[in-house]
Amino acid sequence: MNRAPVVTPERRESTSRPGEDSSLPLPGSLKAGSSRLSPPLVALVAMLVLLWASPGLELTHAQDTGRETEIEREVIGRSVEDRPIAAYRIGDAERVVALIGGIHTGAEEESVHIVEELRDYFAEHPDQLPRGLGLVFVPNANPDGYEHGTRVNARGVDLNRNWPTEDWQAEAYHGDRRVDAGDEPLSEAETRALYEFLVDLQPHFVLSYHGYAALLEDNDAGAAEPLTRAYAEAAGYRHIREWPYYPITGEFINAMAEEGIAAADVELEQHDQEAFQRNLQGLLRVLELVAGGE
Ligand SMILES: [Zn+2]
């Protein structure tokens, strides 16, 4: 099997970072099974315990915020090496904005951390989520790659070349280097899990985080163009309509477009101390527009 390179200069990914602890704990304030629940809440506790014990689904409560926030954690699939791929949901509204991190890890692992940080922020500040909207976070779409510090999954496949698009082909590139696009579209456990989850969820807008070109690229579906432009303006990134550097085949946001789902890649800026604030401003602006009907 063609082993893909971890880094390529064309996309400014050349600073490799060591793999860090890959565990994906719930935020400290969101641990299930708190002992602070008072007796009148016994029924609620029983319900939570039942839900917590059921496979793949648990509810946790943020109790430090004064306002009760529910985060629903769902295991949407498992990686090649059997690590869970988790989705976190805040708000039960049907109109949802979804954030995906870590399709590429290794040098791009900052994409995992930014989605975790945004998830934790909205768990602590649910008042920032406009009424009628929900947020779904999949911070670590490639947990094996994260664990091993690689761009690709445990089978060496580039998970942003493995999606069911009209242009999928086995011969795929990252810059001028060949990467493994898999045996066929959705040949990988990670892409299958995410695809089925998102097609079922039908989010209004999907943001997929990468590094490090400091720009956003929309997929031209639905409201993708105005929402992406607004995010880019608020976050201080460039907005492009088409990746100009090299052809990307079997790409995630194009698969979303073929399903009619608006999506954008967010290419973070490298070594950016302001990344969280910038992306929070971008996301808040998107939520404001979506709440207003965009
Ligand atoms: Zn990437």
Which helices and strands, and how do they pair?
Elements lengths: L41 H12 L3 E6 L6 E10 L5 E7 L4 E6 L9 H15 L8 E6 L4 H6 L22 E4 L2 E4 L8 H13 L3 E7 L3 E4 L5 H12 L2 E3 L11 H7 L4 E6 L6 H17 L3
Parallel strand pairs: 4-5, 4-8, 8-11, 9-10
Antiparallel strand pairs: 1-2, 2-3, 3-5, 6-7, 9-11
Helix pairs in contact: 5-7
Zinc ion binds next to loops.
Largest sheet composition:
9 strands, mixed
**Distance, first to last CA:** 44 Å
Question: Helix/strand/pairing class, anyone?
Answer: alpha/beta
Number of helices: 7
The helix/strand order is HEEEEHEHEEHEEHEHEH
Strand content: 15-25%
CATH uppermost class of the largest domain: Alpha Beta
Work out the helicity level: 25-40%
Spell out which ligands are present.
zinc ion
- Order of neighbouring strands in the sheet with most strands: 1-2-3-5-4-8-11-9-10
CATH fold topology of the largest domain: Aminopeptidase
Q: Report low-confidence residues grouped into runs of 5 or more.
A: 1-37, 61-66
Shape verdict: globular
Mean pLDDT: 85
Radius of gyration: 19 Å
Question: What is the total domain count?
Answer: 2
CATH architectural arrangement of the largest domain: 3-Layer(aba) Sandwich
The CATH superfamily of the largest domain turns out to be Zn peptidases
DSSP E strands, number? 11
